[in-house]
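Tokens in:
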């Protein structure tokens, strides 16, 4: 579930890079198991005394590690948690370790062997499959290929350094413009994640539930004033149909989310909460005109989310923004999962500037350090740029964060240059 990067400070603390989509869950386990990376030695159990998240990494103190020298011996080791200590996988989730031991067949039904290992590899996790004759195959893993009957835990006591949870999020959108949502969701990262079966989309048009000949879904506001208001009844029926469909797929209580300027501002933290929730089924309600009859909101809606302090003409684009933000956080959605971890806000900072070829563009050269090939210097330069940018453009993000001595020094240097 993580990899020890380096000792931290002089008192035996460790810096750990989480390899799970929900790093905080690692801190909730009182015991960790450590093993040399790629080694086949025994796992060593340590008690977690203290730990906190520092941007993209965790800093932790484990039992029996009293000083920097003792901690340094574990640099590069894997961190695991026993399978039995992890919560049961809910609908749409798969623990990688549960894939080990499953039988693999091709589309023609021919048995190819059994999964002996799951490896992290670019866009997809890759299954190492061993045939009865000893033949080895590497097969990209797509969650949609696992049949429900196959997903029963097989290696229930194994400890995995890659025990990442895979999750299928179900999103239904109630909208007067279903084609707009359908089309936009099917391109780019969200489209690819859809194809990979990481999330599922269905759209519902309240007009299909209108009862009069004109298929009316809006009416004038009581009390007078400009514009029209969306009527409660057709929306209630569309939501009921979406709820029912999600229930049929195992989401007991889908959350009904109304996109509205009057909602709580959408943040990275909120996106992560939605992307990693254990029961990930959402019905997004997109308004039009002046908005939706308040009684429908009172009766049906669980959350209200705003995408910013401005008004757009309908809830479709806000819904699509929320969908995109969630989808790119799902393991396997991006070609390199690390990139979402380094994006703005994920580390609590704004992202650093990026450069690509040519080396000199219109008389402007790429910063020299980026051409040096020196990974540690590049990492420090990027961190310094992120810190300086954040202080300049979004000082509010730094307000709740105590900079480490090194970060403070890097920020000072970046601001002097
Ligand atoms: C023209 S707006 C209605 C604005 C509403 N009268 C108000 O002032 O709050 C129509 C629909 O667009 C969506 N919408 C507009 N701006 C939004 C925002 N900032 N965040 C989320 N949804 C928004 C909502 O679904 C809303 O019902």
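Residues out:
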């Amino acid at each position: 579930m993580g990899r020890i990067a380096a000792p931290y400070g002089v008192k035996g603390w460790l810096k750990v890079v989480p390899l799970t989509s929900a790093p905080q869950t690692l801190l909730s386990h009182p015991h960790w198991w450590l093993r040399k990376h790629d080694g086949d030695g025994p796992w060593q159990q340590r008690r977690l005394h203290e730990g906190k998240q520092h941007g993209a990494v965790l800093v932790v103190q484990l039992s029996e590690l009293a000083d920097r020298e003792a901690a340094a011996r574990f640099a590069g080791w894997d961190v695991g948690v026993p399978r039995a200590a992890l919560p049961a996988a809910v609908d749409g989730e798969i623990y990688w370790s549960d894939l080990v031991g499953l039988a693999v067949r091709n589309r023609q039904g021919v048995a190819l062997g059994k999964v002996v290992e799951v490896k992290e590899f670019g866009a997809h996790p890759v299954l190492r499959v061993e045939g009865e004759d000893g033949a080895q195959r590497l097969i990209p893993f797509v969650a949609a290929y696992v049949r429900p009957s196959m997903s029963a835990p097989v290696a229930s006591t194994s400890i995995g350094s890659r025990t990442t949870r895979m999750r299928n999020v179900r999103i239904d959108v109630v909208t007067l413009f279903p084609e707009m949502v359908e089309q936009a969701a099917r391109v780019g990262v969200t489209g690819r994640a859809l194809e990979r079966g990481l999330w599922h989309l269905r759209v519902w048009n309240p007009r299909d539930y209108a009862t009069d000949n004109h298929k009316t879904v809006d009416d004038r506001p009581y009390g007078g004033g400009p514009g029209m208001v969306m009527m409660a009844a057709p929306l209630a029926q569309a939501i009921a149909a979406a709820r029912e469909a999600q229930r049929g797929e195992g989401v007991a209580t889908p959350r009904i989310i109304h996109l509205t300027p009057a909602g709580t501002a959408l943040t990275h933290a909120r996106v992560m909460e939605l992307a990693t929730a254990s029961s990930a089924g959402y019905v997004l309600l997109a308004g039009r005109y002046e908005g939706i009859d308040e009684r429908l909101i009172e009766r049906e809606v669980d959350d209200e989310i705003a995408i910013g302090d401005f008004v757009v003409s309908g809830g479709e684009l806000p819904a699509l923004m929320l969908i995109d933000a969630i989808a790119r956080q799902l393991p396997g959605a991006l070609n390199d999962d690390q990139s979402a971890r380094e994006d703005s806000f994920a580390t609590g900072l704004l992202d650093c500037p990026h450069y690509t070829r040519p080396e000199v563009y219109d008389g402007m050269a790429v910063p020299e350090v980026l051409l040096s090939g020196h990974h540690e210097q590049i990492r420090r330069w990027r961190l310094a740029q992120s810190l300086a940018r954040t202080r300049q453009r979004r000082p509010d993000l730094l307000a709740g964060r105590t900079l480490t001595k090194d970060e403070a020094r890097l920020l000072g240097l970046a601001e002097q240059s």
